[in-house]
Amino acid sequence: MEATIAIEKTNAPARTEDGPRMNEAIKAREVRLIDENGENHGVVSIAEALKMADDAGLDLIEISPQATPPVCKVLDYGKYKYEIQKRKNEAKKNQKVVNIKELKMRPAIDTHDYEVKLKQAKKFLAQGDKVKFTMRFKGREMSANDLGKEVLNKLIEDLEDMAKVDTAPKVEGRQMTMLLSPL
Fold first, then answer.
1. Helix crossing, 146-158 with 111-126: angle to 10°?
2. Which CATH number does the domain housing residue 81 bear?
3. What's the pLDDT tens digit per position in 110-133?
4. Residue 9 placed within a domain
5. Helices (H), 38-179
6. Cα atoms in the Cβ-side hemisphere of radius 13 Å centred on 169
7. Fewer Cβ atoms within 10 A, N terminus or C terminus of the chain?
8. Owning domain of residue 134
9. Using one digit for the tens of pLDDT, what is the confidence trace for 5-63?
10. Final residue in a domain of this structure, among 34, 65, 93
11. φ, ψ at 55 (rounded to 5°)
């Protein structure tokens, strides 16, 4: 009785490892070499670059694979990955997240209600958030949507010292929207 082994072929791409290529994984014949002190040794063969890295007791890491020839550096790989992670965390810490706060109103808004919405908008803008005003129309109010536009234009005038108009008032179905961002 003969045993046959079936081998499946898949069209999946070869699995690639995260991070830059290092040591023997570098495929180029010649590389531009930078040693552990940051000194440029120019274009050298891959064998010579690997020997220099081995003599220093460090790894040869491909920094810029798109360049011709690729740029490689003699570094400690663990330290290199740590520094990259540190830079990513620093960039993440410095980024500002902008929130969009929404205030909903009706075209027949009373003066006190208007002032409350205006005060909320000023607070949101002072915090650095964008403010989206949504004017909702019911029933026959759609035929007189100029009332809603007047209210939104009054808001623009009242907030001109704190905000700029990102999206001018525009009608979308049964509502009119406008977006303001802090100066």
1. 50
2. 3.10.20.80
3. 999 999 999 999 999 998 899 999
4. no
5. 46-56, 77-94, 111-126, 146-158
6. 19
7. N
8. 100-182
9. 544 444 434 334 567 888 888 888 899 999 888 889 899 999 999 999 888 889 999 88
10. 93
11. -65, -35
User: Rounded to whole angstroms, how far apart are CA atoms 97 and 132?
Assistant: 16
Question: How far from chain centre, in Å, is Cα 145?
Answer: 38
pLDDT score of 86 more than 80:
yes
Domain boundary among 72, 93, 114: 93
Query: What is the C-alpha to C-alpha distance for residues 178 and 154, in angstroms, rounded to an integer?
Result: 12
Q: Are residues 86 and 106 in the same domain?
A: no
pTM higher than 0.70 for the full model?
Answer: no
List the Cα angle 134/116/120 in 5-degree steps.
70
The chain-wide mean pLDDT, for the chain, equals 85
d(CA 77, CA 22): 8
CA gap 94, 146 in Å, rounded: 43
CB atoms within 10 A of CB 116: 14
> Residues in the chain, how many?
183
Task: Report CA torsion sign: 152, 156, 157, 158.
Answer: positive
Domain match, 118 and 69 both: no
